[in-house]
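Quick question: what would this complex look like in 3D?
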Amino acid sequence: MRRTYVYFTSLLILVNSGTLNAQDTVRFPLKVRVGIDFVGPGSYLWDKKNNFNLEGYISLDRSEKMAYVIEGGHLNYKYSQYNYDYQAKGIFIRAGVDFNLLKPDVSSGKYWAGLGLRYGLSSYSSETTSFQYKNYWDSVTSSVPRRTSMGHFLEVVPGVRTELFRNLSIGWSIRLKFLISAGGGKDLRPIYFPGYGTGSKAVNVGINYYLIWSIPFKIKTVITKPPAPEEPEETQVSTVNQTQQPFTN
Amino acid sequence: MMKKLYSFLPAIVIAGCSVLINSCAPEACVEETGSFLKASFYSYATKLKVPPDSLTLYGLNMQTNKIYNKTTQVQPALFPLNPSADNCTFVIRINGITDTIQFIYSSFPHLISKECGYTFYHTLDTFFYSKHTIDFIYRNSDNITTLNEENIRIFY
């Protein structure tokens, strides 16, 4: 009976020590997220319905720190100024990762502040329906016929996200875009192309505001604090020994 | 941690708004939009770069619209080519003596920037010239662009 008591006491201590460790862990929900941007549709309504950009993303949490992201979208762009009329239409995809800079106990799967890295690929057709050029001899009106091109770019995407309601979040991100290739050759680079923006600039900046639906698929237990040092454990063991001593004697 | 995050958020909001405002603001065209054939003047005797004391330049049959009119210290002279033709002829008067130069070339559009639009670049094929005061013309580069690159050297 005494032996049973000692084992029970030891078990209680073990359970208690386990409970103490549990305070240093967080149950972090890993999620699949589907987001849709509303800067594009918003500016379509605001900007005289000339340019329609629709984009969204799907992300999959790999861990509490990192998520895989695929983004895609469509752009129908028209632009006119005093010396040319331009239009471009096409699709783009971006693939990359998001890194969460918040600690898991702060983030809790609800808040995100971090940095994303993307590679972007754009397939589009563009056309300059007319442009004017004036010099000493004459004023010339010409055009650049429609052609299909591919553009490549990289992005660094800092941003924030927060949960509004259960599994529904909003978030926004700034996009720092670095051009690899705009397509179209060195003379007829696109004025603007889907996913990147102004094709004659080596660096572009963009912004997205997302409404996000999250689907938790797994709960991960994340240790937020390393295990306690060995010294307190020794104290526990000595406690056990003290408990055991009367029995052995 | 959350306090730190909240103190960081206004900076992000301000940065985001300024990015949004900047990205929507129209920008001005500041790049060079004219592409010219650039000709430097050299003394045939010394082979040194010497601008003419007086330079008059105009397109053939366009004497009412002169590019240079008895202008001094022109170095280099800028020849605007006609993008709607594959050749053009200039009348050039160096120190009061007149010559003509005809350029044969091809033209193609080139995007300068979203703000500036398009210009025409040219590829120089060949040229012909009279030799009243011009002794020799040396071809340096066939690419006629907006860049400051010498295309021909006129020895006189």
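Answer marked as accepted. The longest helix of chain A spans residues 2-22.
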